Amino acid sequence: MARQAHSGAAEGPGIQALGYVGIEATSPADWAGFGTGLLGLQLAERSAAQLVFRMDDRRQRLVVTPGARDGARCFGWEVADAAALEALAARLEAAGVAVARGDAALAAQRRVAGLVVAADPAGNRIELVHGAEAADAPFRPGRCISGFRTGALGMGHAVLTVERAAPVLAFYRDLLGFGVSDYVTHPFTAWFLHVNGRHHSLALIETGSAGLHHLMLELFSLDDVGQGYDLAQLEDGRVATTLGRHTNDYMTSFYARTPGGFLVEYGWGGRVVDPARWQPVEMTSGPSLWGHERSWGSPEMRAEARRLKLQAAAAGERAPVQVLPGNHAVMPGACPWWDQLRAAE
């Protein structure tokens, strides 16, 4: 179930996609096996300074650097070109946000033509970039997978925990031009924001503290996810959220604990929205249609999430499976009752 709300997105130049994410790690070596063996990323560069992972034709998507803590180091948000970058930087400066122009050395390190650096109200470092470099060699996954769904949709989505959602939401929506897809108030308060056809490239969960909750990577095949789930279950504590399906973006996924403690959502079948016509709504059926039993969060939150999904199931809530051409086959009807019901619709 859903209730309609208002987007409030800013007009003008804006973000096109999540281009890359930088991670700080106390034990970066642990990421090599996790990134390739479970997630199927390609380890493109490995040195004492950083690990660079590919997931498609881009030179880099995930960069892990040694540090004193575990968590997000930066988020690279892409814009169309240099003119769009300057326009967005000017908008931020006019609103009183400190903006620094990245020099040639930083641009080369990030494999982009140009960038500016700022911080959101929660203290997250955001890098607005254009002209990301493509690799010369084809992507070679770390394990046998069909590949990641990226392209114009970007590398996936990031979900941040925030002390208070309102100022962070205003920053991304009103200044950077993100559109609101939907939001929830039970079993927690969260806002889901889009910048392209992906249902959300960013989400904010109000928890009372700031951090990175999870990154989402979307696969081309449901079997890629299921086989990853098998691998994750071989390690005690690796699965943080069981296999399930979300109510808002229809993603079938599980969540794995990373070496840094935050989560990676590994999913398939996310819905596409039309940013020009999308009307945001309040989701009232909870976060998941089924599954997604969490080993994290308070007992009260977990119990409420379970109650909501069982209530949605009892009410007959369903969502169409989202498929790409070539990765599904249409079966003939085998149930007269179901065929009659569909014909009546």
Q: Strand order, main sheet: write it out.
A: 1-18-11-12-13-10-14-17-16-15-19
Q: What is the succession of H and E elements?
A: EEHEEEEHEHEEEHEEEEHEEEEEHH
Major pleated sheet: 11 strands, mixed
Rounded to an integer, what's the Rg over CA atoms?
Answer: 20 Å
Q: Report the principal-axis shape.
A: globular
**Strand portion:** 25-35%
User: How many beta-strand runs?
Assistant: 19
Query: Distance between the terminal alpha carbons, to the nearest Å?
Result: 19 Å
Count of DSSP-assigned helices: 7
Nearest-integer average pLDDT: 93
Structural class: alpha+beta
Q: List the uncertain runs.
A: 1-7
Helical amount: 10-25%
What does this structure look like?
With 345 residues, the chain is an alpha+beta fold. It has helices at residues 29-38, 82-94, 104-110, 165-175, 222-233, 299-314, 336-344, and strands spanning 2-4, 17-25, 42-46, 51-54, 62-66, 71-78, 100-101, 114-119, 125-130, 157-162, 179-184, 189-194, 202-206, 211-218, 239-246, 252-257, 263-268, 281-283, 288-291. The strands form two sheets. The chain has an eleven-stranded mixed beta sheet with strand order 1-18-11-12-13-10-14-17-16-15-19, with helices on both faces. An eight-stranded mixed beta sheet has the order 3-4-5-2-6-9-8-7, with helices on both faces. A hairpin with a 7-residue loop joins strand 4 and strand 5. It is globular and about 65 Å long.
Protein topology:
Layout: E1 2-4, E2 17-25, H1 29-38, E3 42-46, E4 51-54, E5 62-66, E6 71-78, H2 82-94, E7 100-101, H3 104-110, E8 114-119, E9 125-130, E10 157-162, H4 165-175, E11 179-184, E12 189-194, E13 202-206, E14 211-218, H5 222-233, E15 239-246, E16 252-257, E17 263-268, E18 281-283, E19 288-291, H6 299-314, H7 336-344
Parallel strand pairs: 2-5, 6-9, 10-13, 11-18, 14-17
Antiparallel strand pairs: 1-18, 2-6, 3-4, 4-5, 7-8, 8-9, 10-14, 11-12, 12-13, 15-16, 15-19, 16-17
